[in-house]
Amino acid sequence: MELRSVVRLLVLSASVFAPGVLSAFGYTSSGNNYVIDAGSANPLVFSVSKSSCDINSIKYRGTELQYSNTGTHIGSGLGSATVSVSQISGSSRYIKVTCVTSTLTHYIVVREGESIIYMATYITAEPSVGELRFIARLLPDKLPNEYPYGEVSNTSGASATVEGSDVFIVNGQTRSKFYSSTRFIDEDSHCVYGGSDLIHVCIMTPQQESSSGGPFFRDIDSNNAGDSTNLYNYMNSGHVQTEAFRMGLHGPYAMQFSRSGIPSVKNLDVSWFGEVSVTGYVPASGRGTVQGTASGVQSGMQGVVHWYNSNAQYWAKTSSSGAFTSPLMKPGTYTMVLYQTEFKIATTTVTVSAGQTTRQDIAGNFNTSRNTLFQIGEYDGQPTGFRNADKFLRMHPSDSRMDSWGPLTYTVGSSTLSDFPMAVFKSVNNPVTIKFNLASAPGAATLRIATTLSFAGSRPQATVNGWSGPVPAAPTKIDSRGVTRGAYRGYGEIYTVNIPAGTLVAGTNTITISSVSGSDGDAFLSPNFIFDAVELYTA
Ligand SMILES: *[C@@H]1O[C@H](CO)[C@@H](O)[C@H](O)[C@H]1NC(C)=O
Ligand SMILES: *[C@@H]1O[C@H](CO)[C@@H](O)[C@H](O)[C@H]1NC(C)=O
């Protein structure tokens, strides 16, 4: 009691002094809000609504950063929640706000002396909006800039939409929040920033074990929307969703406030999180590790090992010798996959036990012996090198900065990789044509078309010198826009076309590859698929 009143007095004092002079760790109750002071040298004081869990004020170094019309919250706000606050003493002092609804508990935690809001979100059901995200809605005049991508997702001043209500044209360029996305495996911190003292507000996600989609999944990170600058932690969404949503505890994750510096997740300490009683939290002592060696990764490509089951997902990069160590994993049996860059080359299983290191090697088995007649692109699970592959992550395919989509003709031996389109759209550049010379008729051969993502049932149909290959069965549908949102990672279907003997001839040959689907659509929303690699080979 006595400590509490001292704290309250200091909080009151802090608000009347200049920023940076005095800040006192503690919380107070003020009307419908809990006001939390992190007690940091660069003062961070924020208010959480007692009825909705919305953060409705964030003052950092005395400056209000919170957008006033809409709060900072989960989804579009919980609406109503049972909100409680407590101070906890452990290896540090903490303040924890707990917001409870029937299927979701959101935790907001500060550790004394840090300008960091730690969070974790526990769910027993997917939110009815079909996605689980944290969104900070901040003031664009204070924090107009975005890191690491900036302009690509600045939709302030949009003059028109290109697609839906989320891809816009600004100053003749296409912009969307989707173009701020980064692969999970590459995420460090993503931020909004601004002002003369370069205040940064950054989201960091030390692990995404309860998210879905694996190491290469990408989702919205930030967006200057004009009215507010939005900073996100997308924990799951229907944005090119390739596996079921995971329940349980998402996080911990953090929103760090800094002056001029960009914090790194490598320096974020969440080892104390077990001290604040969070439902679903599994401490390090309750976890295990997998170690091993991966082989068969094509030289020059990054090996990535991925573990997943219905409860959790993890990944690790392999060293140049193929060695890998997993993060600390929850106990259980996992599917274990090896990729070269993003191309799957092996699958096995492994069982993880608490407090133990399990040894499990994995060997790539994709590279069977064959006689390659030509190959366009690499089996890396990405459209890298093909036309517009250098641009599509950060702009719409209709953007005037894109190179012409064609239809294109690629001549083996004289064309460059950028003469081959990264995607074939049924209504835009259908088909792509490949011309090549053979010294002699090879007899029967195989055309392998590796793809990364299909939209609206699209799959490739080949013709070879006038012979029509079969129309493959429709791929598993992903109910989401794809390439127009800068996405490319789907199931990665691989199609093999068995070309009968007598079809390929000595001299000039022509193959066309068309986007085929029972569906239709306009322009870049017509059925399309994205290429990974195309190879013609004999046994
Ligand atoms: C965002 O776009 C608007 C409109 O083009 C522009 O005025 C503003 O300067 C941009 N903001 C940043 C941070 O670049
Ligand atoms: C794949 O096969 C080719 C020839 O068949 C060989 O040159 C290459 O080294 C192989 N790569 C791997 C990673 O085994």
From TrEMBL:
Ranges where the Rhamnogalacturonan lyase domain occurs: 286-359, 372-536
Gene Ontology, cellular component aspect: extracellular region
Chief location bin: secreted
Domain Rhamnogalacturonase B N-terminal, first and last residues per copy: 25-280
Reaction catalysis annotation: Endotype eliminative cleavage of L-alpha-rhamnopyranosyl-(1->4)-alpha-D-galactopyranosyluronic acid bonds of rhamnogalacturonan I domains in ramified hairy regions of pectin leaving L-rhamnopyranose at the reducing end and 4-deoxy-4,5-unsaturated D-galactopyranosyluronic acid at the non-reducing end
Enzyme Commission number(s) of this protein: 4.2.2.23
Enzyme class, broadest EC rank: lyase
Protein name: Rhamnogalacturonate lyase
SUPFAM superfamilies: Galactose mutarotase-like, Galactose-binding domain-like, Starch-binding domain-like
Gene3D superfamilies, alphabetized: 2.70.98.10, Carboxypeptidase-like, regulatory domain (2.60.40.1120), Galactose-binding domain-like (2.60.120.260)
Subcellular locations according to the entry: Secreted
One Pfam family per UniProt: RhgB_N
Annotated disulfide bonds: C53-C99, C191-C202
GO biological process: cell wall organization; pectin catabolic process
An annotated Gene Ontology molecular function: carbohydrate binding
Presence of keyword Signal: yes
Annotated keywords: Carbohydrate metabolism, Cell wall biogenesis/degradation, Disulfide bond, Lyase, Polysaccharide degradation, Secreted, Signal
Keyword hit for Lyase: yes
Entry similarity comment: Belongs to the polysaccharide lyase 4 family.
Signal peptide from the UniProt entry: 1-23
